[in-house]
Amino acid sequence: MKKPATLFFGLIASGLASSVMAHGGHGVTAPASLTHYLIEPLHLLPAFAPLAVIAVTIWLLRRKAG
């Protein structure tokens, strides 16, 4: 049970840390454009973090039930 908990915490921590690093001057697209928020990895990770949390939760529940 320790490994899934560590994985879960790692996913949450990486999502929170990436939003702190987002600042003007990173990436190759204009900072105020929609493309910037759709392409740059610093903005994609927080967008996909909830999906990762849901996937890990489903995996843990199936593992526990099965």
Description:
With 66 residues, this protein is mainly alpha-helical. The protein has helices spanning 2-21, 34-39, 41-65. It has a domain at 32-66. It contains three helices and no strands. α1 (2-21) packs antiparallel against α3. The longest helix is centred in the last third of the chain and has 25 residues, at 41-65. 0% of the residues are buried. The model has no long low-confidence stretch (mean pLDDT 76).
Features:
66 residues; 3 helices; elongated; mainly alpha; single chain
Short note summarizing the structure:
The protein is mostly helical. It contains three helices and no strands.
Produce the secondary structure layout.
Layout: H1 2-21, H2 34-39, H3 41-65
What is the radius of gyration?
A: 15 Å
Percent helix = over 70%
Secondary-structure-derived class? mainly alpha
Question: Largest beta sheet, briefly?
Answer: none
Multimerization status: single chain
Number of helices in the DSSP assignment: 3
Shape: elongated
Order of helices and strands: HHH
- Strand residue content: under 5%
Instruction: Point out poorly predicted stretches.
Output: none
How many beta-strand elements? Answer: 0
For the residues shown, what is the average pLDDT? 76
Q: Roughly how many Å apart are the termini?
A: 14 Å
